[in-house]
């Protein structure tokens, strides 16, 4: 069942369209007269094309012909408007909508920039290639971000049909940051990773987070969230566990549905004030041997059986029930499962008709946009498959064409679209897509199906009436004190107290503390006296991240992701700090950012308290240590007892290591 929130309150500053366009989704189909009780006039903003009138009503004249055409008529349904617009588009304009490019920055890799977009390059993508869905990787102040979005929309409005651009982003409201997989945003409220929400298991809180984050996105001109990541965290070595809700498929389903409903504005699909979600990664991404991520050539295969595949599918059910606007297939080749008695094709999931058409569209009934993950049509060159210190993998060498290396780009497009893809992410190679249609490898009807899905989302979000945002209002929305306060409160509550010999809570009055991995100023602000040696302290606080190894230093993502061991060893700085405090006979709080299921077997005997977090500021950790806030979380996955146990567990099966030190759900919930 879809998530049913206890409260449907929204942030008032999301958009002036929130109420005025709500009736669009229920107006008659094209060809019928509008209902007698017509929806109210929406707020229109046009900067390039004129506005035309029909009696007291106003409409944007997006094709500039001086007439009200059906796709310009906000009284009609998104589906009816999409059908009319498709009939007016050239094949080149349609195919441009099937690519999801990157907004180019003024210098910097992958669209990064400290100043803004390269508008000449943006105009070329819009006008010449007809691409108008883009990921943004800018991180500017809210007002500057909004102003840059408006410049993109002006260029989009100036195209022949005035189709507004859809701007997407990786997650922007959390702590973890990997270029190409997550983002950072100046001024946005900062929450724990999704694992923190998994630790709390509070669907209403996830829904509220979605509302707040969606308001922040729309305020700066972002319409599409490349999230949530509802992948099942079944392999403890996997570097992307931090972006999931954990290892419980049922909980992942419930929280995924709440996330979609919060972002999109309802539990039954996308609304005018909402942000389209793209749930990822369909399906089985968490079942990677040794946790080697399939952004990398060496992690291109996942293994699981049919029963395990069903567990991984279960995690998606809530998001699908809430009618997420988009779904993103996973990267790896899935080895082992069968569908309708047929072995899955030996290709990445974006090329698997069995996974996309037979299971996702057929069995699960999904009819939204299927957006491929990034770079699946690109060639994996030598720097991609076998980088070296002398020739490391660079951003331009990123490619994930697993299982289709021998096919041309043209044939990859044909295979993916005929498998079920509607949009290809991270590519702007439109010529090969045009060739595939010209050569009869993709039918015009199949193109229209995908374009219709993409256009419906744009109409549903009200972008054809007003794609512009107010830069000053963006500053207000993103710096809303109540939103930041709730995010800070969640950082505190989502922590998990795993071990406490009576040290916590610490009364700060007169206490001296020795710190490792924590800012001195934060402890002083909390009322503690900071000393330079553990011997001079009353107690110690040691902040740490999960251990890891640099196993693939020359791969772009391999050098940025955590791989390898999960246990602390001599030479690890945080572990050495803990030993130093123990040798001085001073009780220590070991405060761990639990971005992977860390082995704490040799930590527990040396620490007076173990406090896990999933993204928390120093102030948030200190508040729990000092009793000013309560840790209310429980582990969203088990913590193994040894690396030997990790080696023997099945990557596709959640929580199956022998004799785990802490089981999923462990935690001392503070009252």
TrEMBL record:
It comes from Novosphingobium ovatum. One of its GO terms (molecular function) is hydrolase activity. Residues 1-31 form the signal peptide. It comes from the Bacteria. Transmembrane segments: none annotated. Residues 530-668 form the Glycoside hydrolase family 3 C-terminal domain. Its EC number is 3.2.1.21. This is beta-glucosidase. SUPFAM superfamilies: (Trans)glycosidases, Beta-D-glucan exohydrolase, C-terminal domain. Residues 646-671 are annotated as: Disordered. Pfam families: Glyco_hydro_3, Glyco_hydro_3_C. Residues 120-455 form the Glycoside hydrolase family 3 N-terminal domain. InterPro entries: Cellulose_Degrad_GH3 (IPR051915), GH (IPR017853), Glyco_hydro_3_C (IPR002772), Glyco_hydro_3_C_sf (IPR036881), Glyco_hydro_3_N (IPR001764), Glyco_hydro_3_N_sf (IPR036962). Keywords: Glycosidase, Hydrolase, Signal. It catalyses: Hydrolysis of terminal, non-reducing beta-D-glucosyl residues with release of beta-D-glucose. Belongs to the glycosyl hydrolase 3 family.
């Amino acid at each position: 069942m879809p998530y049913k929130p206890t409260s449907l309150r929204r942030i008032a500053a999301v958009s002036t369209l929130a109420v005025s366009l709500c009736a669009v989704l229920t107006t008659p189909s094209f060809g019928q007269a509008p209902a007698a009780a017509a929806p109210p006039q929406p707020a229109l903003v046009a900067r390039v094309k004129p506005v035309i009138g029909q009696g007291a009503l106003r409409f944007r004249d997006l094709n500039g012909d001086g007439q009200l055409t059906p796709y310009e008529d906000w009284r009609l349904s998104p589906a009816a408007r999409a059908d009319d617009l498709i009939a007016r588009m050239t094949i080149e304009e349609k195919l441009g909508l099937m690519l999801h490019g990157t907004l180019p920055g003024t210098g910097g890799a992958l669209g990064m920039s400290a100043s803004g977009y390269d508008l000449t390059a943006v105009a070329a993508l819009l006008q010449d290639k007809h691409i108008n869905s883009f990921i943004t990787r800018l991180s500017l102040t809210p007002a500057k971000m909004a102003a840059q979005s408006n410049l993109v929309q002006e260029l989009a409005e100036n195209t022949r049909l005035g189709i507004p651009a859809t701007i997407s982003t990786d997650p922007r409201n959390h702590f973890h940051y990997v270029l190409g997989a997550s983002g950072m945003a100046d001024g946005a409220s900062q929450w724990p990773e999704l694992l923190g929400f998994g630790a709390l298991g509070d669907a209403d809180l996830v829904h509220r987070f979605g509302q707040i984050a969606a308001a922040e996105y729309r305020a700066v001109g972002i319409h599409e969230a490349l999230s949530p990541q509802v992948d099942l965290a079944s392999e403890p070595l996997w570097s992307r566990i931090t972006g999931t809700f954990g290892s419980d498929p049922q909980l992942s389903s419930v929280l995924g549905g709440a996330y979609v409903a919060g972002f999109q504005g309802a539990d039954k699909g996308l609304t005018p004030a909402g942000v389209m979600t793209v749930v990822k990664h369909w399906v089985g991404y968490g079942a990677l041997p040794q946790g080697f991520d399939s952004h990398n050539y060496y992690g291109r295969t996942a293994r699981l059986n049919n029963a395990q595949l069903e567990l991984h599918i279960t995690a998606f059910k809530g998001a699908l029930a809430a009618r997420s606007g988009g779904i993103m297939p996973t990267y790896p080749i899935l080895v082992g499962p069968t569908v309708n008695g047929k072995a899955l094709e030996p290709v990445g999931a974006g090329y698997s008709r069995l996974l996309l058409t037979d299971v996702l569209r057929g069995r699960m009934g999904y009819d939204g946009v299927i957006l491929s993950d990034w770079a699946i049509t690109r060639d994996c060159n030598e720097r991609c498959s076998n980088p070296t210190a002398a020739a490391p993998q660079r951003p331009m060498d990123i490619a994930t064409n697993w299982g289709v290396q021998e096919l041309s780009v043209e044939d990859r497009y044909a295979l993916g679209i005929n498998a079920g893809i509607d949009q290809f992410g991270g590519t702007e190679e439109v010529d090969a897509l045009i060739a595939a249609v010209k050569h009869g490898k993709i039918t015009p009807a199949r193109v229209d199906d995908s374009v219709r899905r993409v256009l419906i989302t744009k109409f549903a979000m009200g972008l054809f009436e007003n794609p512009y945002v107010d830069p000053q209002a963006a500053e207000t929305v993103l710096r809303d004190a109540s939103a930041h306060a709730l995010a800070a409160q969640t950082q505190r509550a989502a922590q998990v107290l795993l071990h406490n010999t009576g040290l916590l809570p610490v009364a700060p009055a007169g206490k001296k503390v020795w710190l490792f991995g924590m800012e001195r100023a934060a402890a002083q602000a909390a009322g503690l006296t900071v000393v330079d040696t553990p011997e001079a302290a009353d107690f110690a606080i040691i902040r740490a991240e999960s251990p890891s190894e640099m196993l693939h230093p020359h791969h772009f993502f391999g050098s940025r992701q955590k791989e390898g061991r999960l246990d602390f060893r001599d030479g690890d700085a945080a572990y050495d700090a803990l030993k130093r405090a123990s040798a001085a006979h001073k009780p220590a709080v070991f405060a761990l950012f639990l971005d992977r299921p860390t082995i704490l077997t040799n930590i527990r005997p040396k620490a007076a308290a173990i406090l896990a977090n999933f993204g928390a500021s120093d102030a948030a950790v200190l508040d729990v240590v000092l009793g000013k806030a309560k840790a209310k979380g429980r582990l969203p996955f088990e913590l193994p007892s040894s690396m030997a146990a990790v080696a023997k567990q099945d990557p596709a099966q959640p929580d199956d290591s022998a004799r785990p030190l802490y089981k999923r759900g462990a935690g001392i919930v503070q009252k």
